[in-house]
Specification:
The protein has helices spanning about 10-15, 30-35, 50-60, 75-90, 110-120, 135-150, 165-170, 175-185, 200-205, 220-230, 270-280, 285-295, 310-315, 320-330, 350-365, 375-380, and strands spanning about 15-20, 40-45, 65, 100-105, 125-130, 155-160, 195, 300-305, 340, 345-350, 370. It is of the alpha/beta class and about 375 residues long.
């Protein structure tokens, strides 16, 4: 799998100074976690999933989850299990290029059941998503995962979702997060990323953010997200992924759009202003603002519910020319010190910026780095068949 694999070689060369690199299940864990990008969730009852996978990959999907938990009704679980096994067996027998594939289970025994029923077809899986993950249930999920890895000899990963009152309520949050960190550290090599379940967290207080707001505007949830990043991302052991964006079609707005006209006003990109209008009409400007705020807080990746969300998220994770040069300059300053960057637009202080630089180069390896005269608009405009 390669991000932006739908581009022609000519388009890739025209856009990228450093093109995205190929990755697979054997890629090192930290790089593979960054490569998740926009992870598309689909209910496990979707009966044409295997038939649609080629379309999803062409839309840019590089990681996907078949959900057996909240996305389906309680009375659909057994039928959904059978369907997921059928879809994954079909994919195992095809020659389709596949994204990183996960199944979101309801309980640890479902991991054992699916692995047993899939047999050799378990090879199409990258792992499992563990919902409502708390210290009380962690050992059950992690043991089931360890058993699955041993039984299949596959590098299967777990992705716990933090979405319960234990991580939201002020009096329990930090003790719970610290306990979870210790438990996950014992299984570090099999944990791909820590996911944030913002819909469930909001639901605990009856909250739901509108299209004019980001998750960072909801103070109760913002505080929990900041603590999750603080605890899990401080030493580069775990990747934390971002909250789901719930909107995919536009209605009347209260506030101004969140995309400036300037980046889209380029004479070399005819149709770019119309592209901006389309993004705003489908509420993707709100999604893009939330991604920028996620990145600024140390979060990498996003949960999405519609294929139209994937390319805007990935376009914002591509490294710019300036970021790439800043990162390289930073890591070359092995003796410390301060300097201006290549464009003389900002300061580089080698020691405080070193971890940022390492993260940036890792992101560039999977999402690529743009030429100096290219921006995220070029990556979205390529839908029109131009580069």
């Amino acid at each position: 799998m390669r991000h932006f694999g739908f581009l022609t070689p000519e388009q890739r060369a025209a856009l990228f100074q450093e093109p995205p690199q190929v990755f697979d299940a054997r890629t090192d864990r930290r790089t593979l976690a960054v490569a998740l990008g926009a992870t598309l969730y689909t209910p496990g009852t979707r009966q044409d999933y295997a038939a649609r996978i080629g379309h999803l990959v062409n839309e840019g999907v590089a990681s996907a989850v078949l959900c057996l938990e909240d996305a389906i009704r309680d009375d659909e679980v057994l039928a959904a299990e059978r369907n997921v096994v059928t879809q994954l067996r079909t994919l195992h027998g095809s020659d389709e290029e596949l994204p990183q594939l996960f199944v979101r289970v309801r309980h640890p025994d479902q991991v054992r059941t699916l692995v047993a029923q899939l047999g050799p077809a378990a090879a199409v899986l990258t792992g499992f998503v563990f919902p409502k993950f708390t210290a009380a249930v962690a050992e059950g999920y992690l043991t089931a995962l360890a058993e699955a890895r041993a039984a299949t000899a596959l590098p299967l990963y777990g992705m716990p979702v933090l979405e319960t009152g234990e991580v939201l309520f002020a009096e329990t949050r930090l003790p719970e997060l610290l306990r979870l960190r210790d438990l996950l550290a014992e299984h570090e090599d099999s944990v791909l990323a820590v996911r944030i379940g913002a819909t469930d967290l909001c639901g605990l207080y009856g909250l739901r953010r509108g299209r004019d707001l980001t998750i960072w505007d909801l103070a109760l949830v913002r505080e929990a997200l900041a603590d999750i990043v603080n605890v899990f991302a401080r030493d580069d052991r775990f990747t934390v992924t971002g909250a789901v964006w719930e909107h995919f079609t536009g209605t009347q707005r209260l506030f101004k759009p969140q995309l400036r006209q300037t980046p889209f006003g380029r004479p070399d990109l005819p149709g770019a202003p119309e592209l901006r209008g389309d993004l705003i009409r489908h509420d993707l400007d709100g999604l893009m603002r939330e991604v920028v705020l996620d990145k600024a807080t140390g979060i990498v990746g996003k949960t999405v519910i519609h294929p139209s969300h994937v390319r805007p998220v990935h376009a914002l994770y591509v490294v710019t020319h300036e970021e790439l040069e800043d990162a390289r300059t930073t890591l070359q300053m092995t003796g410390g010190g301060v300097t201006g960057n290549v464009g003389a637009t900002r300061m580089i202080e080698s020691r405080p910026h070193a971890r940022w630089a390492t993260h940036t180069l890792r992101r560039a390896s999977v999402f690529g780095a743009l030429h100096e005269d290219r921006t995220f608009v070029d990556l979205l405009h390529v839908d029109e068949g131009q580069a």
